[in-house]
Specification:
The chain is α/β, with parallel strands linked by helices and 240 residues long. The protein has a single domain, classed as 3-Layer(aba) Sandwich (Rossmann fold). The protein is 37% helix and 17% strand. A 9-stranded mixed sheet has the order 1-9-8-7-2-3-4-5-6, sandwiched between helices. α1 crosses α8, α2 packs parallel to α8 and α5 crosses α6. The longest helix has 17 residues. It is globular. The two termini are 24 Å apart. About 4% of the residues have low confidence. The chain binds magnesium ion. The site of magnesium ion has 7 residues, from loops.
């Protein structure tokens, strides 16, 4: 399995077993109810490396394949990113059934249709044009552009999780903390709900997000291997 270590809430002590226990509990909740489980991913720094040329960023090896596996095994898999949806569509062209949320959810690609959040519609052309012209990624090492609309990764995750009993969110920077908070709040309101917050650590912002996470993965390159362990567990459970 890819290097995984315990984050905040699964740690009752700093020994190895606490990490294993937290991970085991998360996997158990997932394989018990795959039809009520969702996996949600940030893109840059999570499923793809941070690069000097943001336009050149592609998913790490195995990221698309493992996403495809999960799409067949669990209720919901989606990408939630600061990138425009068209950028994400190009990267996940093999997975048209996987919902993509761009510009923090201002744009969505769901059921084969690109939509603009109705509140944000007036801002979308400006946001898209500016994001493209700037050639920068939102989040780390960059200018972050947000319209005056109440929409963030946490709100998208809350919508996506409405019918789920377990949800995983993978992110790498502090803008992903909103999604972590959504899972925490849902657990508070619904003790039967399991939220799994996974930080993909990095030297720049990793420590801040890791402090809020249940589990930490060392780098985007380690995420597909970690997902593969979950895919195997799901398949083992499903096979007679
Ligand atoms: Mg990111």
């Amino acid at each position: 399995m890819a290097p995984v270590r315990a984050g905040r809430s699964v740690l009752s002590s700093s020994d190895e077993t606490s990490s294993a226990r937290g991970l085991d509990e998360a996997i158990s909740a997932t394989v018990s109810h795959p039809a009520k489980t969702g996996f949600f991913f940030d893109y840059d720094g999570t499923l793809a490396p941070i690069m000097l040329d943001p336009a050149a960023v592609r998913p790490v090896a195995g990221a698309v394949e493992r996403s495809a596996d999960l799409v067949t095994l669990v209720a919901r898999v989606a990408i939630i990113s600061a990138r425009p949806v068209e950028f994400l569509q190009e990267r996940f062209a093999n997975l048209p059934e996987m919902p993509l949320y761009g510009l923090y959810g201002l744009q969505s690609y769901v059921d084969g249709e690109v939509r603009i959040d109705h509140e944000a519609a007036a801002w979308e052309p400006v946001m898209s044009d500016t994001a493209r012209a700037a050639g920068r990624q939102a989040g780390r090492m960059v200018v972050e552009l947000k319209p005056p609309v109440r929409l963030d990764k946490g709100i998208i995750v809350a919508r996506e999780c409405a019918e789920l009993t377990t949800a995983w969110y993978f992110g790498d920077d502090i803008s992903d903390a909103k999604a972590f908070e959504t899972l925490t709040e849902r657990e508070r309101l619904d003790p039967a709900f399991t939220g799994v917050r996974v930080a993909v650590a990095n030297g720049e912002t990793g420590a801040r997000l890791a402090a809020l996470a249940d589990l930490c993965v060392d780098a985007p390159e380690a995420v597909p291997e970690f997902l593969y362990s979950l895919v195997r567990a799901l398949r083992d459970q499903l096979s007679p």
